[in-house]
Amino acid sequence: MNKSSRHIVVGMSGGVDSSVTALLLKRQGYRVTGVFMKNWDDDNDENCPARQDFLDVLAVADVLGIEVEAVNFSAEYKDRVFSYFLHEYRAGRTPNPDVLCNAEIKFRAFLDHALSLGADKIATGHYARIAEADSGMQLLKAVDTRKDQSYFLYRLNQHQLGKSLFPLGGLHKTQVRDIAQQAGLPNAKKKDSTGICFIGERPFREFLQRYLPITPGILRTPEGRDVGRHQGLMYHTIGQRQGLGIGGAGEPWFVAGKDLTRNELIVVQGHDHPMLYRRQLTANDLSWVSGCAPDEALAYTAKTRYRQTDADCRLALEGDRANFDFADPQWAVTPGQSVVLYDGDICLGGGIIR
């Protein structure tokens, strides 16, 4: 099948990455359609400017000469992603909804919709690569290691990878900006979005208060000293420095743990305090890209948060759990976040830190 007869549906957010994705595929001769996904149904909220983003998509589509459709996945988002988000915060953990959003919305709901339109594949502006090997499809890190997003994609399966394209995986961000500029895309200089789309720029605490009750408690040191008050364990994560409100001299204070039974936040002084480091962790809700668990006899690397440097580790599987043993202690390992396993540039999968 030649490229002109292959239909690629591109998830377009209004940002420069997805716009250049559509541009590159159009230049390669594919028949390209854009889909704008609306994942949060709050039209009166100025902090989630979906309408402006859609206008940016339309402006880019006009330059590229492609059709665009807006699809509302807010019901699926609240059912599959946001409900999990709230559940994890109630349990005192710090979830990463972007990971679940990719698996459940962008590469499930969106993929299903695109296939119903007759698409051969979907494409997104993620910085990652896909390769075909004897064992199946492989998810690889992007060439631009500073922008690599394989961490957020580790829950994808073989079917999803086989139906996806990541045209930006071999480019650096500066190249993407240059391509957009040279092509005259109207959003070439648009700032990258940050954070979770449905939260936007609003204060995080204010947002959570709309859905979870405030439960004030004590800030306590490991020795049992009361050093202040918190407004809710849900507002804090392991390794957090800002917003603790602890005065006095000495090194900065950091969140080192949560005592859910007593509703107490455990805090320590100093970035290198021993309580902020863990050599081992256990993860569940495992997901392996190939569909098969990795060989426990081999040495791997892993990261426990996005942008973290890969760290040497060993893997031990126990039923539906995985134990990670790191060569060096890892800083601020956080329950609810994802630990993602790598074999060089190959993303093997991972799980949720417990």
Q: What key phrases describe this protein's structure?
A:
354 residues, alpha/beta, Rossmann fold, SH3 type barrels, five-stranded parallel sheet, 17 strands, globular
Strand content: 25-35%
Strand order of the largest sheet: 12-15-14-13-16-17
CATH class of the largest domain: Alpha Beta
Structural class: alpha/beta
Give the strand tally.
17
Query: Any idea what the CATH superfamily of the largest domain is called?
Result: HUPs
Q: Determine the mean pLDDT.
A: 93
Instruction: List the helices and strands in order.
Output: EHEHEHHEEEHEHHEEEEEEEEEE
Count of structural domains: 3
Query: What overall geometry do the principal axes of the alpha carbons give?
Result: globular
Largest sheet: 6 strands, antiparallel, barrel
How many helices in DSSP terms? 7
Report helical residue fraction: 10-25%
Distance between the termini: 47 Å
Radius of gyration: 22 Å
**Can you tell me the CATH architecture of the largest domain?**
3-Layer(aba) Sandwich
Low-confidence stretches: none
CATH third-level topology of the largest domain: Rossmann fold
